[in-house]
Design goal:
about 375 residues; Glutathione S-transferase Yfyf (Class Pi), Chain A, domain 2; six-stranded antiparallel β-sheet; DNA replication; cytoplasm; single-stranded DNA binding; nucleotide-binding
């Protein structure tokens, strides 16, 4: 799989830009702040329907415009598919596949499989658990797009359940012993457990499949003897990692019942996959707080390279994007990373200085600046 073309209209800093790509290494070169990351952000948005830089769509639309358009031509097994997205903050986004409208925007998921490594990925090691949960869920959806619906259903139920708990909390605060109406909480518990068990079971399977790839990628990038290990840590007792989905559902229902008093007192749902953690260890120590800057970069890279390898094992080689990565790596890590990915179907690299990119990845060159992208 590779991206043959990208067109942006009123996306970020671009009024309009068209870029023609080819397979192999493609290097976007230009000073900081000229829009290199905007290009790869658009590609990642097509693949995930989310930005890795901002939580909402509004910043994606050029100042003064009402909507942004992204068109991406994807080639897979010698067949080309055009994916079109219209991003309209405050309204439902619209999408087309092969120039035909789709019923739901998420129906385009899977058309472009892409793995992006960016400086923001350091938060996978040093940041909150939500960053690591997002990594897992994005990979779940990339492998099986139906999980976009599962995650959406879980988030919807969680929002409704939190609203009910919040109203009960506020009623207690303002009305003394009056606790608000919690008569429907059992119903929301059942729905939360059903959708939550699907997510937890899928995440457990994913982490089991991902773990050996992470260990292998970390060893290759860092040339370290320390083992990189990952493990999924649910926020409620699960019998074991091989538990059936029905058993996980029952365990989550039990945990919700045990936590109900505390949840009502605090006005928020305290157990479920939205509170789970992906535990990262390096040797015998947790990576967060103990890994050096270089080790953290290597670990973050290993997580993305492991995702890439897992998707490739599924039968579709994804596009790999390395956004401003090499400037942060020492010479040894640069060369080892380049050696690992140089044979990929397509690698899109951004850099401020040509010399930062190892020779193995110096393929097609694109100069970025002044709102334009010039090939050559």
């Amino acid at each position: 799989m590779y991206v043959r073309g990208l067109e942006l209209v009123d996306f970020r800093s671009y009024e309009r830009v068209v870029v023609e790509f080819g397979p192999g290494a493609c290097v976007l070169v230009g000073p900081n702040g000229v829009g290199k990351t905007n290009l790869v952000e658009a590609l990642a948005y097509v693949a995930t329907l989310e930005s890795h830089r901002v939580a909402t769509d509004a910043p994606l639309v050029r100042f003064g415009a009402t909507r942004a358009v992204v068109r991406c031509a994807v080639v897979h097994e010698e067949r080309e598919l055009l994916v079109e997205l219209s991003i309209e903050p405050g309204k439902a986004n619209k999408a087309r596949l092969g120039r035909s409208p789709v019923t739901r925007t998420r129906d385009i998921l899977g058309a472009l499989k892409l793995v992006l490594f960016a400086p923001e990925d350091l938060s996978l090691i040093r940041g909150d658990p939500s960053e690591r949960r997002r990594l897992l869920d994005e990979l779940l959806v990339a492998r099986q797009p139906r999980f976009a619906g599962v995650r959406s259903d879980y988030d919807r139920v969680l929002k409704q359940r939190n609203a009910l708990l919040r109203s009960a909390y506020l009623a207690r605060k303002t009305g003394g012993n009056r606790g608000g109406d919690l008569s429907t909480l059992d119903v929301w518990d059942t729905h939360l457990a059903q959708h939550g068990a699907q997510l937890v079971r899928a995440r457990l399977d994913l982490v089991a499949a991902l773990a050996p790839h992470v260990a292998k990628a970390y060893a290759a990038v860092s040339a370290s003897r320390s083992d990189a290990r990952i493990a999924y840590s649910p926020s409620f007792p699960v019998p074991d990692a091989s538990s059936a989905q029905a058993d996980i559902e029952q365990a989550l229902l039990t945990a919700l019942g045990e936590a109900r008093k505390q949840e009502v007192e605090r006005g928020v749902t305290l157990v479920g996959p939205h509170r789970d953690e992906l535990t990262l260890t390096l040797g015998e120590l947790p990576a967060k707080g103990y890994a050096s800057h270089g080790e953290s970069w290597s670990y973050a890279l290993a997580l993305r390279l492991a995702a890439y390898d897992l998707l490739r094992d599924d039968g579709v080689e994804p596009v790999l994007v390395l956004d401003d990565v090499f400037a942060e790596l020492d010479v040894g890590r640069r060369e080892r990373l380049a050696e690992l990915v140089s044979g990929a179907s397509q690698v899109i690299v951004t850099c401020a200085v040509d010399d930062d990119v190892p020779r193995a990845l110096r393929g097609a060159r694109y100069e970025v600046g002044g709102g334009e992208v010039r090939h050559g």
